Amino acid sequence: MRRIAWRAGELLGVLFIVSFGVFMLLTLMPGDPAVAILGEGHPPADYEALRQELGLNDPLLVRYWDWLSAAVTGDLGTSLVPPQSDVSDRILGALPVSVQLAVMGLLIALVLAVPLAMWSAAHAGGTVDRIISAGMFAVLSVPSFLAGLLLIMVFANGLGLFPRAQWVRISEDPVANLHHAVLPAIVIALMELALFTRILRNDLIVTLNEDYILAARAKGMPAWRILVADALRPSSFSLVTLMGISLGRLVGSTVIVEYLFALPGMGSMIVTASGQGDFPLVQGAVLVIALVYVVVNAGIDLSYGYLDPRTRRAHA
């Protein structure tokens, strides 16, 4: 319980630092929110009246406190760029797209990486290991935009198996949603596959040299059973940590994939809002991404007790 309370305090601290940092940085961006709302060509008095109404003339810390006080209640403000809309509604519309793509991409990468890493570790130094390692380095060297373009050319434009610039929400049609999400999720999976495979392979090799593994081998246990039942779980610390970091990162950084496939996710929304000077939307989106990131990683940290009971005793 004490550990959970400590993690909750860390979570709140990180969110405060992120929100304050983003708020300060956005104040340095060029542009005038009043001009963004009204457009150009209005009398100076109109702009000044709007700035006064929005509190833009207040001291910086006062403006931050007003925004933070509202954000705690779930009110992230109103978008500045016409048509003006509630920031929370905009984020709730874009967040599920990015989260779904990130989760699907990580699951695809995990399903492929685990058997590849186990196979590679079981044949460490051999031909199979070298082939898998070379393949992962090749995948890692391909930029995501190039991989996306190739997949679009082959499977969307060439074979017509998948749509390119369309999105159907899962609440409207789950089957169509998966059909539209598979190709961009594969592009995301390729970014993570090589990293997952390499880090799990290295940890498995270390674990397979532990005394209890050698004892299991001496008892004549099958190699596959040793890998799956005895070596995989204690070798998953680094992989689980990397997955948590990747999930938080991907929710807000799938800009290239969302652009290639014209998807209405968080990444493309933040880029568009930044270009338009829509400060409230950028602030709210970054805060939500930070929240997703710290919550996921707090959950990953708490899962270590399941992966290795020794960590429960260490934190007791």
Query: Shape, please?
Result: globular
Mean pLDDT: 81
Radius of gyration, in angstroms, nearest whole number? 24 Å
Helix fraction? over 70%
Note the main sheet: none
The stretches of 5 or more residues where confidence is low (pLDDT under 50) are: none
Q: What share of residues are in beta strands?
A: under 5%
Structural class: mainly alpha
The total strand number stands at: 0
N- to C-terminal distance: 9 Å
Give the count of helical stretches: 15
Spell the H/E element sequence. HHHHHHHHHHHHHHH
How would you describe what is shown here?
By secondary structure, this protein is mostly helical. The protein is 77% helix and 0% strand. The mean pLDDT is 81.
Secondary structure elements and pairings:
Layout: H1 2-27, H2 33-38, H3 44-54, H4 60-72, H5 87-122, H6 127-141, H7 144-158, H8 174-207, H9 211-218, H10 223-231, H11 237-253, H12 255-260, H13 266-276, H14 279-307, H15 309-314
